[in-house]
């Protein structure tokens, strides 16, 4: 199941995504996040995390650095974001 979902995301990345301008508010992009979550947490939990990330990506969110956490959660990885901002000497 995991391979099928990753294949669908890769198909989106290759054939659909190039048709639109880049608008992702997060780094890594939502599709890359989905693939990483699927590989790290399996088909069910990874899909839930990826879908939650896509739902968080909208015009009213600040965006920024948001890697896949090591533990299952549907919320943003604030600890990694704060560590990144501190290492880059950002506010």
TrEMBL record:
Keywords, sorted A to Z: Cell membrane, Membrane
Topological category with respect to the lipid bilayer: Peripheral membrane protein
GO cellular component terms attached to this protein's record: plasma membrane
InterPro entries reported for this sequence: Membr_insert_effic_factor_YidD
Pfam families in the record: YidD
UniProt keyword Cell membrane present: yes
Matching SMART domains: Haemolytic
Cellular localisation: Cell membrane
Origin: domain of life: Bacteria
Primary subcellular site in the record, as a coarse category: membrane
Biological role stated in the UniProt entry: Could be involved in insertion of integral membrane proteins into the membrane.
PANTHER family linked to this entry: MEMBRANE PROTEIN INSERTION EFFICIENCY FACTOR-RELATED
Entries under NCBIfam families matching the protein: membrane protein insertion efficiency factor YidD
Family statement: Belongs to the UPF0161 family.
Identification of the protein by name: Putative membrane protein insertion efficiency factor
Organism: Lentilactobacillus parabuchneri
Taxonomic placement: Bacteria, Bacillati, Bacillota, Bacilli, Lactobacillales
């Amino acid at each position: 199941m995991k391979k099928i979902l990753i294949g669908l995301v890769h198909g989106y990345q290759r054939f659909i995504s190039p048709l639109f301008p880049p608008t992702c508010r997060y780094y890594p992009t939502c599709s890359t996040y989905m693939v990483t979550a699927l590989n790290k947490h399996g088909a069910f939990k990874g899909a839930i995390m990826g879908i939650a990330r896509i739902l968080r990506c909208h015009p009213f969110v600040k965006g920024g650095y948001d890697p896949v956490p090591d533990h299952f959660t549907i919320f943003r990885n604030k600890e990694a974001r704060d560590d990144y901002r501190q290492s880059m000497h950002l506010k």
